[in-house]
Amino acid sequence: MNKVTITKLRKNGTVWLIMLYSLLSIMMVTFSLYQINQQEVSILSRGLYESNPSTFTVTDDEEPIDWRKLNKDDAYSIFVEIEESYRGFYYQEDTYSPPMVSGRYFEEEDFYNDKQRAVIGQSVSEDELEQIKRDGYEVIGIMGGSYSSPIDEMILFNIDAVEEGNPIPSAVYVLNINNGQLSPDHLNFNNTHISVDSINRGDIGAERFLGTENYQVITGLFFILLLFCLSFFFIQYWVAQRKIEIRILWQLGINPNKPYKDYVVSLFCITSFPYYLMGLISFFWVLQFSSNPQHTSMHTQNLLIGYGLILFSAGLSILLSYRKSRKYIMK
Amino acid sequence: MIYKEVKESIARRKLFTLFIMIGVMIFLTTVTILIQSYINIMQKEALIDSFEGLNVYQISDTLLEDDDFQSYLNEPNSLERVKSLYEYLEDDINEKFIYNFEQPIEMSTDIDDIEEEFLQGYEEGNPLPPAEDEDGDLYYSLKAVQLNEQAFEMFPVNLSEGTSFTAEDFHHANNPGVIPILLGADYADTYQIGDTLHVNYLFEEFHLEVQGFVESDSFVTSPQLPETYLDRYIIMPAQEFEDPSDNTEEEFQQRHYFQMINGAIYSSEERNVVEEEIESAKAAADFPHFELMGYSTTVLGDFFDAVEENIYWVLCLSIVLLIACSLSISTLMIKKIHDNYRNMMIHLISGGTMKSLFQYFLAEVFITVGIPGAFITFLFMTVLQDLPPLYVLVMAASVVGMILLAVIPIYIQFRRLTISMLLKREE
């Protein structure tokens, strides 16, 4: 690229636009990291429970329960509180995976496979660890984040190993399910009902005390609005610079469709290039430095949503400019 | 003159001026939300500030076997010595002694009058069934927490209405048979200030007088139960009693005081220093059956870490947002001004100077960025009344930052340009 081309790009606004979209991309990457980490603090401070889980005891505790057959279409995780920091655990399809110090978290093959598997927190004592091993459990991973949280003292077992088919009498079950709050008096089990007593525990953990979650939601909404508006305005500016060019082409007999098509292509490249660059850099950064493997998939998801938002706002902006210029030309 | 020029320039490109103003307003609103978020976290942290860096040592009597316990009670002055130990821990020890115990109280009530959430054991899926006395009355166990004066001062327990405990409330002789209580926020629909509850506490009858309600999400902590939210609790001041008048009362006081000495020491000192203090207490009270248990833990470590994480990310996001948005908006501003260069040439031809041109641009930037900035700041200062001076400072800094980021590049360009270059469109 020689000096003339650079000057030309600078003058026609391309360099400006790339710089502006780089700033937007940095904002999106930071917001994604903010959101991922806030979500992690939120769920770890609740000891892996969601903010509004279904808590219950099983009324009829003599019937065997196979938690795989819980008749729900969504992914869910279920915990049973055995003693102070001991819990049985099962998940179907998908679960929040905590940051691990070593080893791995549970996977589907660990359940209902005649196995005895345990995941322990990073502060669990050697004595307790030895006792777990003596009881026949294989410790597959140690969980813990870079900050202290209730999971540090926790010991999780696969639920089939602790229940051996029958629900534990008077134990409290906690069910995380994605489609919001449920207050079941019974749970569906492949067309049979298990009757349960719901417990309303209220919120727990540091996040209850801090009360930051409302702020996070509002911050998120305004951030999206900001991103949308800035992207929209940038494109309006950029297209406005080309108003004269379009008029001249029109007078030469060239339909504005042609230049606008070119603009769409240029803008797609201009908005995408910095975003891909920032996205890739941040992706590798998260891969390298995060203690939670789930963060890379969450970050990718957020980046895709951000990309969609940017493309949508840019697209809307250029569409409106196009319509305006057609209306003006038709006059 | 400048004002007229600026007004005309803005009117000519109304839409783009509007874009910049909207951008500034949304940006500053987002900054306001982040500042509020930060203030909220700092206010919450201030509530638990006194715990930072402290270790908690659990202390306990060693008369765990019933035989040992009974044989101690048969010793002369057994009750006085336990009382003396408690008084030493309360008043004389050089550390914070916190007594925070969850002894449920028994109340004879119709189950329809009391919600299940208030019963002891509800959250564990095991609400205690009612006990029946010889008259056939059913007594339900309600969740209650007893706090000594130091605990009450140290924990973030603030009132939403009513009066707090005073020093007199911790000495039962000031109002025999009556214990003033505070109720958790969830009790607000069930009781009012001035109501009296007739209850059994450790098998002794008392009247509990409601004198206030605590704010929701108030909590207390202990080594056994790191976080207990008080919303569903009855909060009682730990009572010190005068000498018992009969055997029944003596037995009650024995149960009560033996419970009260099983508290915790919150200290920044090393374990050996705390052990020495405990030895002094034992010697002063002539009560040797007492020790520091196990190992110490950091108080509310999870909470402080959560605070730090939250603050870190709020600050990160704020800084990136401030820099990125300021640069973006300033860039839009600069582009708008550049588009105006051609129009300004008329002034140069008619005898205007570069200096006056620059003044027009400066004024335009001021108005386009400054007006929405001032508007948003005053709006939020009116709507959210407890914003600190920090808020105005940050808002002003953001607006000034945006103005400078726009003005400085233009100024630099102007210094480089001469009138002739501008007229020849060589900018």
From TrEMBL, chain A:
Q: How does it sit in the membrane?
A: Multi-pass membrane protein
- Chief subcellular location equals membrane
For this record, an example GO cellular component is:
plasma membrane
The entry's localization annotation reads: Cell membrane
- List membrane-spanning regions: 12-34, 217-239, 260-284, 304-322
Entry keyword Repeat: no
Q: Which residues form the ABC3 transporter permease C-terminal domain?
A: 218-327
**Stored Pfam families:** FtsX (PF02687)
Classification via InterPro entries: ABC3_permease_C (IPR003838)
Task: Alphabetically list the UniProt keywords.
Answer: Cell membrane, Membrane, Transmembrane, Transmembrane helix
Tell me if Protein biosynthesis is a UniProt keyword of this record.
Answer: no
Q: What is this protein called?
A: ABC3 transporter permease C-terminal domain-containing protein
From TrEMBL, chain B:
Q: Where are the transmembrane segments?
A: 15-39, 311-334, 360-384, 390-412
| Manganese recorded as keyword | no
InterPro entries, A to Z: MacB_PCD
> What Pfam family is a match for this entry?
MacB_PCD
Print the keywords alphabetically: Membrane, Transmembrane, Transmembrane helix
Endoplasmic reticulum as UniProt keyword: no
Residues forming the MacB-like periplasmic core domain are 145-279
Question: Would you tell me the protein name for this molecule?
Answer: MacB-like protein
Upper classification of the organism: Bacteria, Bacillati, Bacillota, Bacilli, Bacillales
